[in-house]
Design brief:
It contains nine helices and four strands; from the N terminus they run αββαβαααααβαα. By secondary structure, the chain is mainly alpha-helical. The longest helix has 13 residues.
């Protein structure tokens, strides 16, 4: 079922608003497993993803995570800094959020493989994800993560959009890997 959304270039979700589904080819297996587990446990609230994740066994999660992680070429062609210098506004926002302290100087080499690579991800997806960390007490929308929640709540939605646009503008390792045929 994953390739039905994550394997189609330009595919968009329509909940909670219209945005491109995230690129997951090239993310680490540990991150994908953590995300699927969070959907399964309700820590990430998205009705479609939750219903899919609830039906997955631990072995399914491992297999799916390893398959998407295998799309990483194994070596980062990226330097230890962003490929595009941020504006003064973006620099101030990045410093306030301390994004690099967890996601790496190039935002594509997280300090822990359970954290996502952000560089080159779709801006509209990043914006929706960041706003979800600010959402509380909504059974259908939101993400439960104390650290990210505290960070996201410091910013207006306009500022989150600026951060999302910057991250999306960077060279990244994430891709959409269409399947040539369904199995």
């Amino acid at each position: 079922m994953c390739i039905g959304c994550h394997g189609i270039k330009g595919y968009q979700s329509s909940f909670p608003e219209v945005y491109k589904v995230p690129m997951i080819s090239g993310q680490s297996a540990k991150y994908i497993a953590a995300a699927l587990t969070a959907y399964k446990n309700g820590d990430r609230k998205h009705p479609t993803m939750r219903s899919i994740a609830e039906g997955l066994s631990e072995q399914d999660v491992t297999d799916i995570s390893n398959w998407y992680a295998s799309h990483d070429d194994g070596g980062s062609p990226l330097a230890d800094k962003p490929s595009r210098e941020p504006s003064a506004q973006v620099t101030a926002l990045l410093n306030k959020a301390a994004c690099a302290s967890c996601h790496g100087a190039n935002f594509s080499s997280p300090i822990d493989p359970s954290y996502p690579k952000l560089s080159g991800q779709h801006a509209d997806y990043l914006f929706v994800a960041l706003k979800a960390y600010k959402t509380e007490n909504n059974p259908a929308v939101g993400r439960n993560n104390g650290v990210m929640g505290a960070i996201a709540k410091q910013f207006s939605n306009a500022e989150l959009k600026v951060l999302a646009n910057y991250m999306a503008s960077l060279d990244g390792e994430l891709t959409i890997k269409p399947e040539p045929k369904f199995r």
